[in-house]
Input
Amino acid sequence: MQIFIDSADIKEIREAASMGVIDGVTTNPSLVAKTGRRFEEVLKDILEQALPATMQDVVIVFVTVSGMKDGALQQQTYARKIYSHVLAGKMRSAIQITTASSLCAMLDLLAAGRLPSQGFIRQEDLSLPDFLANRFGRVFALDELSKAA
Output
């Protein structure tokens, strides 16, 4: 069984979280409206301040591709675990590292003219070696992130 607090009051949420009795938070527009604050500000506060961040998460990246190469059916696989780690002088969770790094890598490649400037960009539009060679994408290949901190 999981227990969630249904609130938009940051003090209530912090208090319940500090007691260790809740698994998460639910809220709705009417609860947010009662705070008298902007919807985005309340949600930002809940996400950033009210609930403790975990540094025990693990992101598993698994990519496999099959296809014809030089007349033969081949398969290539890339797999890696990424743990929380100190990055830019601050302890970051694995999900923070991977989400920020992927987004920054794609924007960096777009700015460098390595991706189409308009339309939908498919995963196939970028090779794994090119992604891992990018200054942000290389985070996925760092050996120190594949070991628990």
User: Anything to note?
Assistant: The mean pLDDT is 88. The radius of gyration is 20 Å.
